[in-house]
Each structure stands twice: as structure tokens, then as C-alpha cells.
Design goal:
By secondary structure, the protein is an alpha/beta fold. It has one domain: Rossmann fold (3-Layer(aba) Sandwich). It has eight helices and seven strands; from the N terminus they run βαβαβαβαβαβαααβ. Helix 1 links the parallel strand 1 and strand 2. Helix 3 packs parallel to helix 4 and helix 4 packs parallel to helix 5. The relative contact order is 0.15.
Length: 255
């Protein structure tokens, strides 16, 4: 589905980034992983056959230079996906949350998404084609106790729709995926960073089971599900989809 395509996956060292990179590589794409930690990037690259570059996706100059280098090495950028963590903090009522904990994912999230999407859009509009993908939980649709996640998701939702309108006439599609949590990507470390420290594997299994119970299908999306959807959206099979978000929450909420 992605034969002869060039894809850049920001946040490519994470579990979801690795899954998307693997799916893209299997679909025939030449994949460039981007992240801040060389060791974890190398591990994913060894498994997927992807190339990798170490940089901060929130650094404007570094992202622009990297995008230019990918064009030089591979001839262009066909797909850009941003899966970079934002520093979300959850599980605390808004009335008890600090300004920093609430605003951090909003500021970091929208800045990072804007920087990477802008760099991709500049190259894609120049050549008349390309796909830019984003992913978030869909919490802008309403999720209590999610802190700044809802506001961050709402900002990225709006960015996708606006950029799709502006870049669409040049042949560039922009869309996103709502997941409301990808359960097999959850780890004690990730949950601790989001505000739930001290969880062991049994506790994480409890979180996964609770998320499953909230879905219409009683089954949460998995990494492989989202990777397959991201492959479809990036391919010519998804040519009619832009300016919107695909609800892949397994029915966490209707849309």
C-alpha cells in the first residue's frame, strides 16, 4: 500500500511509533524514525529496517533541517506522522491541578505538532502530494479527570482541520486518529509519568480491563489496529479522507 513512499515517524521509538513504523515498512515504505534517544531508536530500527535520526521534534530549526535532509536523501516526504509524547498529567480534578500541569500538554503538544506538520506541508505542497497524520485520545469530546489532555487534543483537532483546508488545494491530505487509549501500549512507566505512580503490572492490567469495559465493543484498540489504520490513511486507498478525525476508540464515544 505504501510502495515507494517515504514516511517520517516522529516519536518513532515509542511502542506505538514502532508499531506504525513496522506497518509502514511492511507496506513498502522507506521509513525515517525521529526521536531524542539514540538507543531506543536503534532498537526499533533494527527490528523494522527503518533509518533513524536523533533530534527534538519541538526544535524548529532541527525539524526543518531534518525534513530538508530527508528530501535530499530520499527524494521527498510522502507521509509525516507525529506520535511525540506531550507530558500529559491526569487523574486530578481541575480544581486541584496546577497551571503548569494543565497547560504543559497543550503548549508542548500543539507546538510540536505545528512544527512537524508545517515542515512536512512545506515540502509536500511544493511537490503536490502528501499525507500528514496526527493522533490523540479524542478527549476534546469530553473526558473528566483528563487534565490538560482535553484542551491539548482540542487544539490539535483544530490544527488538523485548518491545515487540511489550507494544504488541500495543493494535493496534501491532513487527518487524525482518535484512540482514547491504546491498551497494549500502556506500561507502569507511562502511567507513572501521566500521574499514576507505583503501579505494577497487575494494576496496569486493571486499567486495561477498565478501558475495555468502557468501549461499545468491550475491546480497546491495540497497537496493530492503529498501525493498520495509519497505513490505510497514508495510502492511496484513503485518498478521499482529509480534514477530519477517524474515531478508532472502539466506541468510547459516538461521533
Amino acid at each position: 500500500m505504501l510502495e515507494n513512499k517515504v514516511a517520517v515517524v516522529y516519536g518513532g521509538a515509542g511502542s506505538l511509533g514502532a508499531g506504525v513504523a513496522q506497518a509502514y515498512a511492511e507496506a513498502g515504505a522507506r521509513v525515517f524514525l525521529v526521536g531524542r534517544t539514540r538507543e531506543t531508536l536503534r532498537k526499533v530500527a533494527d527490528v523494522t529496517g527503518a533509518e533513524y535520526d536523533v533530534l527534538d521534534a519541538g526544535d524548529e530549526e532541527a525539524v526543518e533541517a531534518h525534513a530538508a535532509s530527508v528530501v535530499e536523501r530520499a527524494g521527498g516526504i510522502d507521509v509525516s506522522v507525529n506520535l511525540v509524547p506531550r507530558g500529559d498529567f491526569q487523574g486530578v480534578p481541575l480544581t486541584e491541578m496546577s497551571v503548569e500541569d494543565y497547560t504543559r500538554p497543550v503548549v508542548r503538544g500543539i507546538a510540536c505538532q505545528f512544527i512537524t506538520a508545517r515542515a512536512a506541508a512545506r515540502r509536500m505542497t511544493a511537490r503536490g502530494s502528501g499525507v500528514i497524520l496526527a493522533l490523540n485520545s479524542g478527549s476534546a469530546n469530553g473526558s473528566p479527570m483528563m487534565g490538560g489532555t482535553a484542551a491539548a487534543d482540542g487544539a490539535i483537532d483544530a490544527l488538523v482541520r485548518q491545515l487540511a483546508q489550507e494544504a488541500g488545494p495543493a494535493g496534501v491530505r491532513v487527518c487524525g486518529i482518535w484512540t482514547a487509549g491504546v491498551t497494549d501500549s500502556l506500561t507502569p512507566e507511562k502511567l507513572a509519568a501521566a500521574g499514576a505512580p507505583g503501579m505494577d503490572e497487575a494494576a496496569v492490567q486493571g486499567v486495561r480491563a477498565h478501558l475495555d469495559s468502557l468501549r461499545m465493543t468491550r475491546r480497546s484498540p491495540r497497537i496493530a489496529d492503529i498501525a493498520a489504520l495509519a497505513t490505510f490513511l497514508a495510502s492511496d486507498a484513503g485518498a478521499s479522507i482529509t480534514g477530519t478525525w477517524v474515531n478508532a476508540t472502539a466506541g468510547m464515544f459516538p461521533s
